[in-house]
Amino acid sequence: MLNVNHIRKRFGQLQALEDVSFNIRKGTCYGLLGPNGAGKSTTIHSISGILAPDSGSILIDGTDLYSHTAACKRKMGVVPQEIALYEDLSAWNNLLFWGSLYDMSKQDTLKRAAILLDWVGLADRKNDLIAHYSGGMKRRINIAAALMHDPDLILMDEPTVGIDPQSRNHIYTMLQDLRKEGKTILYTTHYMQEAEELCDEIGIIDNGQVIASGTLEELRHQHPIEESLHVHFSESVTTLTDLPWTHQWEQDHKKLIISSRQTHKDLAAVIQFLDSRQISPEQIKFIPINLETIFLHLTGRTLRD
Amino acid sequence: MWQIAKKDLYIFFADKKALFLTLLLPIGLITLFAFAFGGVGQSASEPNPVILQYSDLDNSPASAALIARLDSISGIRMEAVDTAAGMENIRKGNRIALLVIDQGLEPALAQQSALPAHLFFDESQAMEVSILQNMLRGMLGQMRATAAPAPESAGHQEPEASNLQMVSVVGDETSNWGLIQAVAGTAIMMLLFSVSAIGASIIEEKEQGVLRRLLQSPQPAFSLLNGKLIFATIIALFQLVVMFLFAWMAFGLPVGMNLPGLILMIVVTALCCSSFGVLLASVADSKRQADSLGTIIILFMSAIGGSMIPLYIMPGFMQDIAVISVNYWSIQGFYDIFWRQLGIEALTENVLILLGYTVVLLTLSYYFFRRKALRL
């Protein structure tokens, strides 16, 4: 459905996209994960047809985006990171307006707007001005506006930024619905959990490059990362020199990181070992192999940095 | 408290361009009003001479002497015309006055009888006409005194106003040039403010991310600009129509006098002003810049174009530069309709120039919109 091939984009001295390539199969959800400034939004803008890359190509359903821009734009709906709605219009009128940009018939526009308002759970408040909505409600209308023309490809640029957990869950449910409908989704986020739960495939972007791509399982196997136990002490511990596990010390010997592919089994042994040395840990954390650790392994920093 | 002031000062001084524009406004207006009311710059530059048309039907030594004396005054340039052409020039607003000297000036001067001299004038140029009138009366009075010295007993009496007959050529009892000046001048200035606010909404949409979303739709990039232009034009039309209707109902402005001409002028004025609003939005980088730049340009155009100060008050060189202002061509068009009571064909120049401005403003708008607004 979407093929992004070696796109590059430079803004003055800044090489925003170095070499971005990935493919999204029809009906799947692809998560583009990266810290702020990694190139997620630039990639989305390029794919949405408003920022032509300096080189490389973008194909929507096999059609070159920048040769047939209008036709390709009709196939996609973009949920921007900002609440890009008219605050002085009602939700209903916003949806009608955004739908009208896609040359829909009046009948189809009215029908679709009613369906979407019902879907986002705001049918009873459809005549309220957007200005009177909460942040979460605005986010839902923001998504609905992108779906007015029923696109096959949906680009979502951090659609859950800055909203309460309840609204976020509502949006997750909406995304699941879209996946059930067979929509192809490109989803950018810096919430690891979102990407893990919602996406079939994940691409990790950093410094304008996709540095890893695949399913979570594939990513786990591609990178030799071990699960770990993080053992925290209230005071510096310098007497543990004969630990039988691969380990490292942090925070002035107040934190011990033990790596293992069998952390569950090793947990009991660690506790027993510390007990035998009469050392009481303040806290022990089990760190599984997840996107956070993969990302940390790949980039040397956390996603929130 | 100090932190709040410090923060606001930082924000205020951060946008250097907007700061410059904010300071430029009062400085520019002070300069402008100093030129207009304070006589600043008048010694440095030669004022534009007033062109006084004359038609000498008397052809006597006395009439020739009068014309020669008038011509010798540095601020006046005499221009010989035939009476009909001279009158037409005044009606069209090309000249402000015509001196017609009928036969019999010499005997009239000698006999202290009514002088066969008429000054036909455009009342809307009150200040210049008043100067001409006083000058002529003074000269004719002197000539009369020389031709027939008054007896000793009447020595203290001035010759009775020299009997120069003043005839207003333009306008009639239904016309009121002051009202036309007030309505047309104010309407256009206010219209420019309205459309610049509409244009600035493009910047707001950019700042809110709505512009980007619009561009992500299959609509051509310039459809946004065109949409804003249509909206601004409709609002401008509505605003002008309401203003002229108000002037009609409240002050009796005869809007039906030349309805096709009025509609034509309203349409081209609305189009031109709307293009200005759209250009403003395309040029400015921020809402604050658009507001400052808009206020400066509008007040300058209004001041030099005759919206705020009637043109005849301005020094000559400022009257010359008035033609660069949209306000000037629009106000003159409305003067042609209501004051000079000319037909629709007389508006051709005004209409073409305002349409020319529209084309230039829109071309620049598209250029800057591509360069700036689409830079996401």
Brief overview, please?
The complex is a heterodimer of chains A (305) and B (376). By secondary structure, chain A is an alpha/beta fold.
Strands, helices and their partners?
The complex is a heterodimer of chains A (305) and B (376).
Chain A: E1 2-11, E2 14-24, E3 29-33, H1 40-47, E4 55-60, E5 63-64, H2 69-75, E6 76-79, H3 91-100, H4 106-119, H5 135-146, E7 153-157, H6 165-180, E8 184-189, H7 192-198, E9 201-206, E10 209-214, H8 216-222, E11 227-232, E12 246-250, E13 255-260, H9 263-276, E14 283-287, H10 291-299
Parallel strand pairs in A: 3-8, 3-9, 6-7, 7-8
Antiparallel strand pairs in A: 1-2, 1-4, 4-5, 9-10, 11-13, 11-14, 12-13
Helix pairs in contact in A: 3-4, 3-5, 5-6
Chain B: H1 2-14, H2 16-37, E1 50-56, H3 61-71, E2 76-80, H4 83-91, E3 97-101, H5 105-111, E4 117-121, H6 126-147, E5 165-168, H7 177-208, H8 210-215, H9 223-251, H10 259-283, H11 287-305, H12 316-321, H13 326-338, H14 348-373
Helix pairs in contact in B: 2-11, 3-6, 5-6, 7-9, 7-10, 7-11, 7-13, 9-10, 10-11, 10-13, 10-14, 11-13, 13-14
SSE sequence of chain A, one letter per element: EEEHEEHEHHHEHEHEEHEEEHEH
Order of helices and strands of chain B: HHEHEHEHEHEHHHHHHHH
How many domains is the backbone of chain B divided into?
2
Radius of gyration of chain A, taken over Cα atoms and rounded to an integer in Å: 23 Å
Alpha-beta content class of chain A: alpha/beta
Helical run tally of chain B: 14
Shape of chain A: elongated
In helices, the fraction of residues of chain A equals 25-40%
On the 0-100 scale, what is the average pLDDT of chain B? 81
**Strand-pairing-aware structural class of chain B:** alpha/beta
Helix content of chain B: 55-70%
- Overall shape of chain B: elongated
What is the number of strand segments of chain B? 5
> Major beta sheet of chain B, specifics?
5 strands, mixed
Unreliable sequence segments of chain A? none
Question: Would you count the extended β strands of chain A for me?
Answer: 14
**How far do the termini of chain B sit from each other?**
37 Å
